[in-house]
Design goal:
Length: 288
């Protein structure tokens, strides 16, 4: 029996709601748009028209893969973050709304620096650094990342958002001391791997079976990257430079302590939209 675009969307949304999907409206719309090659605006305009059997089957096949754990962002190859459309592949983590809090706080700090040089360390898709560049025309941003695959995505996203004049990429290991040739920065932002190694296998299937392990595993207690970055990468910060971290659940106090031990002051913890402490930041007051 023929079905309209709108009714197909409603079918997918219903299935996602029954499965407990966190954003069934958004996910259903993205799957139907991708399967049919329609934009969101086009989908609204053709909602009452009948869809071909081939396109309907394609949408339902994508739904089945998603219900089996495959994230929508990997299925459609893109996702939105801070208003920016981003290419997404299994080489990078899928940007989460929680991370927008990190961007908000770094923007407030960097607005006062003109010009402003920013390093996004463990950049992944480049979402944080690109969001900062899009909001700070006076800023120059380096996306620092170890993974070759992730760096490719960073470069694609830089071009896609027209930010090549502000943003460059650099292959760099966050667990190795920075080269002096990097120069100095006003702000270092990082959403590093922070899942304790033993907890990785307990993560939801959509995460542990699809997202890159190297972007998740933060060592025995999940704090390896915070310790190393705060200690070794502070050398690239200018006096009173800012260090802005995203942290995992129940890690904020520990990360604040790590930063305090390394000479960072004016320390603050900020909660995300779910009321979970998500960002820890401060400024480099003294060398230790």
């Amino acid at each position: 029996m023929a079905i309209t675009y709108h009714n197909l969307y409603l079918d997918l949304r219903r299935a996602l709601r029954l499965a407990g999907a966190p954003s069934p409206d958004l996910e259903a719309r993205e799957l139907v748009c991708f399967a049919t090659g329609k934009t969101k605006e086009e989908l609204l305009s053709v909602g009452g028209l009948y869809i071909s059997n081939d396109l309907e089957h394609r949408a339902r096949a994508l739904l089945e893969r998603h219900l089996n754990g495959e994230p929508v962002a990997y299925l459609i190859g893109e996702w939105e973050f801070y208003g920016l459309p981003l290419d997404i592949t299994p080489d990078v983590l899928i940007p989460r709304p929680d991370t927008e809090v990190l961007v908000d706080k770094a923007i407030a700090f960097c607005n006062e620096k003109n010009p402003c040089r920013i390093l996004d360390l463990c950049a992944g898709s480049g979402c944080v650094g690109l969001a900062l560049a899009s909001q700070l025309p006076h800023a120059r941003v380096i996306l620092g990342e170890l993974s070759e695959g992730a760096l490719k995505v960073c470069r694609q996203n830089t071009r896609r958002n027209g930010l090549t004049s502000q943003v460059s990429t650099l292959q760099v290991d966050a667990l190795v001391k920075p080269a002096s040739t990097l120069g100095t920065f006003d702000c270092l932002v990082s959403n590093p791997p922070y899942i304790p190694s033993a907890d990785v296998v307990t993560l939801d299937t959509s995460v542990k079976d699809f997202e890159p392990l190297m972007a998740l595993d933060g060592g025995d207690d999940g704090l390896d990257f915070y310790r190393y970055i705060a200690k070794e990468w502070k050398s690239i910060l200018k006096p009173n430079g800012g260090l802005y971290f995203e942290v995992g659940i129940d890690q904020a106090e520990a990360v604040m302590g790590i930063m305090a031990d390394q000479g960072f002051g004016n320390l603050e913890i900020v909660k995300d939209l779910g009321d979970i402490p998500r960002v820890v930041y401060g400024t480099l007051c003294q060398q230790v």
